[in-house]
Amino acid sequence: MSNAPLKRLVSCVRQPSAAHLPYVGLEHVGSGTGRLLTDSITEPIEAASALDFQAGDVLFGKLRPYLAKSFLAEVRGCCSSEFLVLRTKSQLEQRFLSYVVQSQPFTEWANATSDGAKMPRSDWEAIAAFDTWFPSCEGQREIADLLDAQTGLIDDLIDRKRRLIELLDERWQFELSATFASRDMQPFKRLLKERLAYGVLVPQPSGPDGVPMLRITDLASGSVDLGSVARIPSSQSSEYQRTVVRTRDIVVSVVGTLGRAMEIPPELDGCNLNRALARVQLRDEVPRSLIRFWFESQAFQAQAMRATDSDSAQRTLGLGDLQNFSVRIPSNPSSWTDISKYLSDRGELMNKAKACLGRQIDLLRIRRQALIAAAVTGQIQIPGAA
User: pLDDT (tens digit, 9 = 90+) per residue, 195-207?
Assistant: First the structure.
């Protein structure tokens, strides 16, 4: 067993690609997985800046190295020049190097030695100095065999849990489809108390004393951080008084991503909206969550796709079209609250299940990373590596 700078064990190859080879970009590699994304390699191309790699080379993404994008090549191909193509010398096994590059100590070193603030980039000179522990070649093979088996099990568990999340999403859409499949049809405009309104067309920047302006990205998590939200001058907010939102209003996205919605809580009362959002003010007897769920449903999406089918660039849902949409719910308003409560309870149950699966996936990733780091730094006792 010994330690050495990586440059004694590995060569960084920068061979321009002259052949017509399958291409791998950074976007084709999973973050922290050591794997290519499924069916991600593009058709053979000729790229002026592409680099050639051989089967057995280890590729590491030097742009934003904290993303830990790397993989062990199984076939010859070409790749983006944002990869370092690492080729082992006789003292180092290819699979062992692949796990070294995936390990947290290596990623931390690459990140700490990178240059640039917004787009940090590492380089071979810095990576080459990484202190690498390496046992005998037999020991390296035994460590790689162990990690192949253990990470394979972990990756399989992660894939299964992701599939469960997908199935929960499918089940939720089934619940929504069943709910909004009533024979009765309510024109959406009849559920409104006021006309729909777009947000601010061209926002003007403002300091911390300006009026908070909600954007489509603020709706993604369902909660808004007023400390980081965009702001506009109070004079401009007054100009767009029609989209100053009040508690219990619904805000829905109508540009690009259609139907992302949230109900305005008391702490967001008085905020304004940008152009991608619309304010929805419902009649008092209409449960807000019922319409919010409708915006999530395939019933809404189908109408939205038809209304924006002719858009050549970004889908933009006209408010006139939206007002003329149909909501399939019972004609008797007394049942709306029961339907809304049922969906709220089901949605909360499914969200808790998805959150639990998400935490399990996070723990499995931590376990995977800890196992790799311990194995490639000699902290796991393996007979052949001792």
Answer: 999 999 899 988 8
Place of tokens 């719910």: 329
Would you list the domain boundaries of the chain? 2-133, 186-327
- pLDDT higher than 70, residue 64: yes
Q: How many CB atoms lie within 10 A of CB 43?
A: 7
Q: How many residues does the chain have?
A: 386
What CATH number does the domain located at 2-133 have?
Answer: 3.90.220.20
Instruction: Give per-residue pLDDT as tens, 216-272.
Output: 988 877 778 888 889 999 999 999 999 999 999 999 999 998 999 999 999 999 999
d(C-alpha 245, C-alpha 316), whole Å: 21
What does DSSP say about strands 250-253 and 42-45: parallel, antiparallel, or unpaired?
A: unpaired
Q: Does domain 186-327 have CATH number 3.90.220.20?
A: yes
Place of tokens 């449903």: 297
Contacts of 128 (CB under 8 A, 6+ apart): 5, 6, 7, 10, 12
Between the CA of residue 251 and those of 55, 94, 192, 285, what are the distances in Å?
Answer: 52, 53, 13, 18
Greatest C-alpha distance within the chain:
78
Can you give the pTM of this predicted structure? 0.82
Contact 114, 65 (CB under 8 A): yes
Closest Cα partner for 102 from 382, 368, 381? Answer: 368
Sequence-separated (6 or more) residues with CB below 8 Å from residue 312:
none
Q: Give the whole-angstrom CA distance, residue 177 versus residue 190.
A: 21
Q: Tell me the one-letter amino acid at 337.
A: T
Q: Give dist(CA 47, CA 77) in Å, integer.
A: 12
